[in-house]
Amino acid sequence: MVDDGHSPDHKYDYDLVVIGGGSGGLACSKEAAAFGAKVAVLDFVKPSPHGSVWGLGGTCVNVGCIPKKLMHYAALVKESIKYDAEPFGISTSATTSSSMPHSWESLRENVQNHIHGLNFKYRVNLRENNVVYLNKLGKFLDSHNMEVIDKKGTVSKISSSRFVVAVGGRPTPLECEGGELAISSDDLFSLNEDPGRVLCVGASYISLECAGFLAGLGHDVTVAVRSILLRGFDRECAEKIGSYMSDHGVIFRKEVIPTRLEKVPSVEGMKERIQVTFSDGTTDIYDTVVAAIGRTADTKKLGLESVNVAVEPGNAKIPAKYEQTSCPNIYVIGDCMKGCPELTPVAIEAGVALARRLFNGSKVPMDYKNVCTTVFTPVEYGCVGLSEEEAIETYGEDNIDVFHKSFFPLEWTLSYPRQEHQAFTKVIVLKSSQSVLGIHYVGPNAGEVMQGYGVAMKKRITFQDLLDTVGIHPTCSEEIVTLKVTKRSGLDATAGGC
Ligand SMILES: Cc1cc2nc3c(=O)[nH]c(=O)nc-3n(C[C@H](O)[C@H](O)[C@H](O)COP(=O)(O)OP(=O)(O)OC[C@H]3O[C@@H](n4cnc5c(N)ncnc54)[C@H](O)[C@@H]3O)c2cc1C
Ligand SMILES: NC(=O)c1ccc[n+]([C@@H]2O[C@H](COP(=O)([O-])OP(=O)(O)OC[C@H]3O[C@@H](n4cnc5c(N)ncnc54)[C@H](OP(=O)(O)O)[C@@H]3O)[C@@H](O)[C@H]2O)c1
Predict the structure, then answer these.
(1) pLDDT at 468 > cutoff 60
(2) Domain-ending residue, one of 329, 348, 369
């Protein structure tokens, strides 16, 4: 890192001001304060274009991971009652989707109450950790001074020796005519009314996760896919997710984007709806359109031009080396940093590692490689390391082996409709060294399954290490340590019994 000029006897208000009280900012500020630094964190939520606002904690807790996972779980509960109750001998008169009404309002209210509790805990937590919380919007005046504005529009100034920019991102709006009629993930989880018939635009994490839980809860859901599902992920696994979701009620409209959204006036007591014209000329009518076409870093009005920090064209992310921007005393972490995977634990780890380097003499940089992740679609998908396509591109097809297996999770075996799809795993191995390059798993509890394999990948395991590990029976995870069949062999890769 370049010397940032920090000295303990500086003349500024704070040693560190963190701009953004989300996953990364909260973690960084608390860690820095733990080393005795005088720290303030600024967090201010600008309303979404539809007016949604929320409390302290950033995207993950308010409009991201937490409400998403709870709603995903709601859909899994409903699916489990539908498919599993009867074969497992649990008596319920409500075994079909139509006779199992779902109350969006109850779910929304319970989820929001949980979030409000977390917002409160975060505030207390900051106080207990000696971090000053300022519910104010910050803008750089120069490299040590910031203008801050509160909810009432009162302007003041603060100064700091160092800054960490952790402002995250916001959903990229739909650019087409009438695009402002679409809501985004910033609005969906707190939507007052049941979303009704829904169009999700986009085909990556957010769109597919939202489409998945909405369909699972009984909504009529269409996904507008511009090109492919889950770009960047292993193609075979992405296709399995698409196929599972199609068979569970999600309609995929391939290779279309909306070109026009217009209001359809309410008739006979029905609420206003939205007519969508697609790029292939077709039209359809929805109650709700959710735009999930990516996120743009929230750096526009941060005054970065005053500190000569340029942002990337397009996604507005800030380039950095070891989280240090081109202005040496201004650092950046999380979703708004160029090259940072947009994941909560990554923002947290990067924030903690940076605070240790700035205030406790650590030399350990954040390691952005081999981060495991899970897509919480109706059938979940967890992975770590390279996709098969990336492995082929990097090492050449002849130099890798792909071990794979399709199998029925034991929990699915009593329910006939569950048996239309199998769970799946593949491990990609570099032939020369037997190093594991990637681990992929499509099936129940993928996040729980994949976390431990993430540790293994950090330790640079070989395929033999996996085989030497005794499995836990009967689990899905054990399938990953008992793989024998390579794709190249052409042998049947369907699991038998134990
Ligand atoms: C729908 C959805 C689902 C997701 N699901 C997952 C998941 O399952 N797992 C996962 O790991 N990740 C998930 N993510 C991604 C995860 O939420 C983000 O990676 C994470 O929140 C990034 O943290 P951050 O600290 O970089 O930014 P954020 O959490 O976005 O925090 C930034 C904060 O800065 C504030 N701010 C912005 N500008 C200013 C300013 N000028 N002054 C003061 N405050 C400002 C913002 O209001 C915000 O509170 C999901 C995201 C979405 C949208
Ligand atoms: N479970 C999790 O951990 C989780 C969950 C949610 C979000 N996240 C994080 O949040 C990040 C953002 O997720 P995201 O799904 O919003 O964005 P994303 O990963 O950037 O994907 C954007 C999607 O929108 C499509 N798209 C882009 N522009 C479009 C347009 N103009 N019209 C129609 N479609 C368009 C893209 O299609 P193309 O492929 O054609 O470009 C792609 O399918 C993710 O990268 C992830 O790190 C994580």
Answers:
(1) yes
(2) 369
